Structure formats: C-alpha cells, structure tokens
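INPUT
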Amino acid sequence: MYVDLGNALSSVASPGVSRESLDRLDEDVAVAHERIERGRANAEHGYAALNLPGTADPDAIKATVEPVADAEALVIVGIGGSALGAATLADALDSEVDTYVLDNVDPEHTTALLDDLPLSETAINVVSRSGTTAETLANFLVVREAFETAGVDWTERTVVTTGEAGPLRDLAQKHDLPVLKVPDGVPGRFSVLSTVGLAAAAIRGDDLDALLQGGRDVAESLSGSLFEAPAYAYGATTYALDTRGASVNAMMPYAEGLETYAEWYAQLWAESLGKDGLGQTPVRALGATDQHSQLQLYRAGPRNTMATFVRPRERIDRAIPATDVDGLSYLGDATLGELLDAEFEATEASLAAAGRPNVRIEIERVDERGLGQLLYGLEAACVLAGELHGVDTFVQPAVEWGKNAARGLLGAEGKFEEARAVEEKTRLRVE
Ligand SMILES: O=P(O)(O)OC[C@H]1O[C@](O)(CO)[C@@H](O)[C@@H]1O
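OUTPUT
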C-alpha cells in the first residue's frame, strides 16, 4: 500500500497541512501508536481487530464451510459490518460462485432474488455479531421459508457466523448448523479479516491466506512515525485536513471492483469517527464515473472537502480499437486502462490546480493480497485518526435509538420510549 500526501500540503491546497505541521503531528502519532500497540498486546476491544492477520484461522474457517463448498450460488444475509466486508471481497474478486448480499429489508428485492436463485445449489451465510439485528434475522427467516417451500433442506445449506450467545447462536445450536464465532473485541466494521468476512470468501474459493498476508504486510509497517507507515500517514493527514476544515472525505477508487469498498469505507469512517460532534463525512464515489457527477462540487464548491483517490498499479487491460472518426483517433492509440489512469491523474491534478486537497492510495493489484493491504490499511488509519481526535473509535451508541423505535413500532417485548417520539412527529404536510 502506497500513500502520496503531496496534494494535501498547504503549498498546494487550502485547507492544507504544512510539512512543519506534519512533523509536529508526528509526535502525536508516536504517542497514538504506543496506545494502539498496548491495546493490541492486551487484545483490548477494538484494537484486537488489528491483530486479525495473525489471529484469524483460515483452515478452521475453510473446514467449517466445507458442507457448502459445492455451492454454485451464495447469499450473504447480514447488515453493516456483517455484510460490507464480505460484499467488498465479493465485488472485487472473481469466483465461480454467484454471490448475493441481502443487507436490506426491501420485500420486492428479497422476493425477486429468492425467485431467481437455484436454491438447491445455493449456500446461505447468515452473519450477525449480536445475533439480534432485526433486518438480518427477518431476512433469514424469509430465506429459510423460501428453502422450505422449495423442499430444499436449509439446514444443509446454511453456515452461521455470530457471537458467543444470542438468538442466532441458539438457532444454530437447535438445528446443529455449522457456526463460526465472531472473535471477541472485534467491532463489525473492523471484522472483514475475521470469520465475518472470511466465511463467505471461503465459500467463494477466495485465497484467505493471501488476504491475511496483505493485512500482515501493512501491520508490519505500523510504526511510531507517519513517514514510515502508509496507513498512519493517511489517517494522520485526514485528521489534519479535517481539523483545518475538510469535514468531507470523498473516497474515489478507480476500479469498478472497488465500488463496494467505498461503501465499506463509509461505514468504517462514519461509525468510528462520527461522535462527540466530530467526524469527517465519508462520501462514496467511483472513478472515472463520478468525475461526471460529483467533481464539479469538489473542485468549485465549498472548501470543506478532501478527496481520496485509490487505484491498482496493475490491471488486466483492453485495447481501444483504432478509429478514423475525426478527433477520436487519439483514443484508438490507447487502452481502456491507459484512459482510466489518465483520468485518475488528470482529476487528481485538477483538484490540486484548484487548490483542493487530495491524497493518493495505490495497491499493486485488485487481488486478495492487495485487498488485504487496503482494508487493513484503512482500518489502521481509522484507529489512528480516532486516537488523534480523542474519540472512542470502537463504539456506536447513537445507532441504538432508531433500533429501539423500530422495535417499539413493531410491538416487540419491552418498553421503547423512542417509538412514542415517532408517533408524536411534528408535521407540516404539503400535498
Ligand atoms: O453484526 P450485527 O450485530 O448484526 O450488527 C450489524 C451492524 O449494526 C451496527 O451495530 C449498527 O447498527 C453496526 O455497528 C454493525 O456492523
């Protein structure tokens, strides 16, 4: 994983950070690194996630999913951190196994998916750390019923990933289902390199060892200086730019296979840093596509945005056929990959020319090792940014209010004051 901070410097951009400020900030990075290392050594909640490249057991995961290793299709039933990591790997990596993610409770979408699936050839990976998330459990009950209606034994097609206890763990035990434990101390959004992201990857036949090796590559680079650790360089720079006004971070990977990665990043950044009135707003974008939708704002809108450009250094390419159409012959001399790289460098430079901060992140290829580096790198960057902001990176208390309100509206057991607030909504209807 390579990071280039050049276009974030105050000599190029505003908001920007001076080299002297980065040198001063590096002292705080050293202190934060010590804290992180201590947290990792004691396997403290959250910090333990940065140990996964060394603690995850790919062979045990592969053995557990063996019963469904013959699947032609896979449905991942989960939400948030229990879906986005696996979905990111599935979007980026090729596999013989057609993979679908049920991470919403839209009846039309769920029904259409179940109607199309070859259920007898389909594996189900239901994932929930708490085992109580309404959307995940509701979708699983619907999926299970579809299998039963089709006369397919769902207990033969299901692998469960969940915590030590809870309704999903109870269900797995009741039906003697293969179950993988979510490791202790690993919040959902930091769990892609654990059983949470790797169970589906194993069913798909992805190279788990290479994914974890990618994580180890970056873990070994973590040190007390941002000038030696690319992940910390990125984390520290987002912090420096955020505190100077860049309260929005547009994540713009230049690879179709990394589109879901930008969604994964959005949860990581929003749930980890969005608290105590602080937090950089993550925006999902895709290069070159969103040059033609969002770039106008980032180049000429309020000076509150930084952009993060991600690209693989190598990709399988395809020539653009020669053409005699006037004004287009230049395209015929290039390839799609060359055009995409030109767009990448041109867009990066266009923001710099307008004095808008941006950072470049590169990996060798969009393969298991490259993804392991990118995902672990962003996790480490996020943990460091959380230390510098002085927030508790590993909790997300603000999400509970809405969950309680929804449970109350559906008449779940217990008292949910929040549900009353929904009924007492202030109204100013215009029809
Ligand atoms: O894995 P679980 O417990 O189903 O939670 C799913 C997601 O919901 C959240 O708790 C937010 O509501 C996320 O932090 C988490 O990744």
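end of record. Residues 57-182 form a domain with the Rossmann fold fold (CATH 3.40.50.10490).
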